[in-house]
Specification:
The chain contains five helices and no strands. By secondary structure, it is mainly α.
Length: 107
Amino acid sequence: MDTPTPAHPLTRLPAEDLDFILRFVLVSGSLKDLGNEYGVSYPTIRARLDRLIERVRQVAAGRAPDPFLDQLADLLENGEVTVGAARRIRQAYLSQISRLKGAPGDE
């Protein structure tokens, strides 16, 4: 009996992420050209790529996307928070999550 092959992780991404990946490949990975296609700055397109990379990591590991990190990425993409601030917030959040997972009684 044949065992069903699990779906490729990329097939579990939303259409908007798949479109981004397609456009990224078609511009040969040039973030400058991709930013021009989307009409956004390099830091904005870089932040969007970082967000996508994190989503792909989560999906590949079988985890659901983190709603807090998605919201932070939205704020960054919309220019409501700077790249530096977003990185500091993300690092603090991930450190706190890591501490909480390691707390006694969380097994």
